[in-house]
Amino acid sequence: MMKKEWNTVDVLRHVRHDWLNKLQLIKGNLDLNKIDRVKEIIGEIVIEAQHETKLSNLNLPNFTALLLLHNWETQSFKLEFEVIDDHKLGKLDDDELTAWIRTFFTLLNESIKSYYDNHLILTIEQQQKGLRFFFDFCGIIENKESLEPFLHNTSFGMDVKQFEMNEREFTLELMIPYK
């Protein structure tokens, strides 16, 4: 997968497009007098913005950019993320983490059914000794054989705490110790 270089105009264009879509969704529901749905949409927007803020506060700029830009690129899966805690407890190597996640996303893209409703939810939690990542994938995995060895491999000191996979889903929990 080729990494697209995003310039300021590209980023602003996508942000504007996303916001217009959200505003049109709110306006459409207001026109239909679906006030409860409008409140839900606004609540979802607030939660998404809070997670983006917490992600930015981790002080991992390359990793943050990769996650924030992911759904704007052509991918076989939609990424959602949440950050449980953004207190600065320790330091990670941003470049190593970003390279590992980029490789993981590339392998996942190549291993799942294209044009299917594939979702990856990533939960990030700061703990005393490191950053905990919990990946929860739901979709169709067509090539487990290329994905499994990579996910079992422990790079740059990461510790795989849990890993389960079948043709429809996988969960992976790993801990990356602070430097």
Description of the molecule:
The chain has 179 residues and is α+β, with helices and mostly antiparallel strands. Strands 1-2-3-5-4 form a five-stranded mixed β-sheet. It has helices at 8-31, 35-56, 61-69, 94-111, 144-152; strands at residues 78-83, 119-126, 130-138, 159-165, 169-177. The chain contains five helices and five strands, in the order H-H-H-E-H-E-E-H-E-E. Helix 4 (94-111) runs antiparallel to helix 5.
Which labels suit this protein?
179 residues, alpha+beta, five-stranded mixed sheet, 5 strands, 46% helix
Average pLDDT level: 88
* Largest sheet features: 5 strands, mixed
In N-to-C order, the SSE pattern is HHHEHEEHEE
Strand order across the largest sheet: 1-2-3-5-4
Strand proportion, as a percent range, falls in 15-25%
Low-confidence stretches: none
The percent of residues in helical segments reads 40-55%
Distance between the termini: 29 Å
**Whole-angstrom Rg:** 18 Å
The assembly state of the depicted protein chains is: single chain
Principal-axis shape equals: globular
Count of beta strands: 5
The structure class reads: alpha+beta
What is the count of helical runs?
5
